[in-house]
């Protein structure tokens, strides 16, 4: 872990849906150069917590978020925070690949156009090529950029969604079970990609796959029933957990 301040800090975060508490007093920080994995049984609040990091829960009418969440030291829930801008800086990749029903090119160009990141067609071409290259997809699609994004394979669609997130030059990328709809080969490609993206973006990834958490992350957070049971170096969590509940989960006793 570096000496620079964390990219994101979440302190004492509690989330309710109506009267139901889904996250209870969770504090986690994410460094600039690391991948943090969120693990835990279904329904323990991993997605809920992940979504607080770019205010995706704003779109859920019953959701109420308390606590303090900062990006580069700035409170992302402050009244002057531009949420559209925030979601470009903290991008998100979902469980099911969800390309727009538009061309491959347009899927990537859409965000940069909205945010005014390209001054010309050749600027935009450059952003599209660079984003697809970083997402490990350029070689496979460079001759069919006008084909529909939905015509790609599941694994390619997920890499297209990663390219789309990268295109607006984010600082943090949130991934909610990005491989759960993919076969093992496509999954391996995404994991490889996560390795390559590390350092350029801070990454938080929710996964049900323990081996995946061990392979891609430097630190792991174990959630159970809305609480953060343990957060530490991935190697420690998997080989030498401090909490009994963590040990039970990683040895497959429940979940
Ligand atoms: N929009 C919502 N409205 C009401 N309750 C919700 C909503 N979304 C999630 N919840 C509840 O909050 C709790 C945490 O859900 P969440 O989706 O964050 O869990 P999770 O750890 O991501 O689970 P999974 O591994 O199955 O994706 C659950 O009890 C869930 O039913
Ligand atoms: Mg979830």
TrEMBL record:
Q: Which PANTHER family match?
A: ABC TRANSPORTER I FAMILY MEMBER 17
Q: What is this protein called?
A: Phosphate ABC transporter ATP-binding protein
**Keywords, ordered alphabetically:** ATP-binding, Nucleotide-binding, Phosphate transport, Transport
Q: Which residues form the ABC transporter domain?
A: 8-250
Q: Which PROSITE patterns match?
A: ABC_TRANSPORTER_1, ABC_TRANSPORTER_2
Q: What organism is recorded for this protein?
A: Sphingomonas longa
What SMART domains does this protein's entry cite? Answer: AAA
What GO molecular function annotations does the UniProt record carry, in alphabetical order? ATP binding
| Gene3D superfamilies according to UniProt | P-loop containing nucleotide triphosphate hydrolases (3.40.50.300)
| Superkingdom, taxonomy of origin | Bacteria
For whether the record's keyword set contains Protease, the answer is no
The UniProt entry, under Pfam families, shows: ABC_tran (PF00005)
Q: Which InterPro entries match?
A: AAA+_ATPase (IPR003593), ABC_transporter-like_ATP-bd (IPR003439), ABC_transporter-like_CS (IPR017871), P-loop_NTPase (IPR027417), PstB-like (IPR005670)
